[in-house]
Specification:
Length: about 325
Amino acid sequence: MFLRRLLKTPQISSSVGRIRTFSGSLNATPSTPSSPALKRKLFANLKSCENPCDDVLRDMEEQGFQITAADLTRWANLLKKQGREEKSSQINSFMSWKCCVMMSQSVLRLAVGRSTFRRVAETLIPSVVNIYAPNDDLYGSGILFGEGDKIITCGHVVRNLHKFRTSPVYRSKTIEVEITLNCGQTFRGVVADCDPEYDLALVKIETPTRELLSPAKFGVSKDVSVGDTVLSIRNPLSYAKSFSAGKISCVEHTKIGSQGNCQFYLQTDCALKEGNSGGPVVNLDGQVIGVIWAFGDREVGVGFAIPIDTVVKVMEERNW
């Protein structure tokens, strides 16, 4: 509401229409007069020019020629002392206009950022579920996909991977889990398959209510670049509806798998904690680009996600 009221104020709304004109000076290479002689010449031109000072200064801004606020204030005061009240008022008018434009640009960037985060969160949160595996007292998050009755998550969220690798009896067990949707509805699920090499698992919801399910959309992780803004949506410490924003720090963090193969992970500075595993990392288009895999125990802002391209490859190979 505050942003809407601010954007509707006369000063802000009138300057919004001038942003296109003013943006030319922002994108141009600025040239600020530094020598006293050049400053005196500019001041003399402003005094003698028939056109209003604010129009002249705007033209200079469009050409990438910028005057410091300190010089403008000093010139306005000098003109006022010399009895040139109208010229002084025109310079003050230009400074007020410039402040309004800069403020409106900041407000618009803030408004767009918030609305984008809100849109992505509202779209993806229904696709993220809470998973609890009572047999091993494990919990984490998962992502609905396909028709919504399947969930992709990390293997260590639903299985003790050490037992899975070493115990044929444990590996043959049917593992049941509790699945809680964003709306609070709880379902029974079963771990249909697990790939310990990539630490991924497929969970199927038994007797799902399809109108409550909202499958996520997968993106392409090979298009991700360092510095991209992302959101992580997850179930930290069993609290639902939680997400955080961050950047991609590295696109090829490597790890050697148990079979000797080299695996790549996305690294992000999103705030990740216990219970995050299995949740999505999404881009600003609301597409899943990774599955949260791990976070640094002692390092804040160090988290890792399995790239969605790797996830899709495993899903296709194992017919998930």
